[in-house]
Design brief:
With 129 residues, the chain is an alpha+beta fold. It contains five helices and six strands, in the order αββααβααβββ. The chain has a domain of 72 residues. The protein is 36% helix and 15% strand. A two-stranded antiparallel sheet has the order 1-2. The chain has a two-stranded parallel ribbon with strand order 3-4.
């Protein structure tokens, strides 16, 4: 297979996990193929390939991570999507539905919050948490 990712032995990727990695990182398959659907982002093979070393991680991957972390959170920790930093810096009008979805899906009660995590872009390097 023509792959862009080769796991090392210490990664211990075997069985179905190895098959999934081969399917995701195969360079001959459609890079625009939708592999993960979320209410807040769509993850294609191409966006998953940004997880390779020395690549900038795309916004959709950071939003997916925020979705996964928020879903497993007790809501005292807020894991916000990259959209939130765009809202905070005033980059254009934000639809009411977007603000409502962020509030409902990523945030809890403000009087209970302990930590807020929000991805930012700094000097061509994407920092996630």
């Amino acid at each position: 297979m023509s792959l862009t990712f080769f796991p090392t032995k210490d990664m211990k990727i075997v069985g179905l996990d190895l098959c999934a990695a081969a399917y995701i990182f195969n360079t001959k398959l459609d890079q625009d193929k939708l592999l993960v659907r979320s209410p807040h982002c769509t993850i294609t093979r191409g966006s998953l390939r940004t997880l390779q070393s020395r690549k900038s991680v795309v916004n959709d991957m950071l939003i997916l991570l925020a979705c996964m972390l928020a879903g497993n959170s007790t809501r005292i920790h807020w894991f916000l999507p990259t959209t939130f930093s765009q809202i905070a810096t005033g980059r254009g009008p934000i639809p009411h539905a977007t603000l409502k979805a962020i509030r409902e899906d990523f945030m809890g009660k403000a009087n209970r919050v302990c930590k807020i995590y929000c991805p930012i872009w700094c000097m061509d390097i994407s920092f996630c948490l």
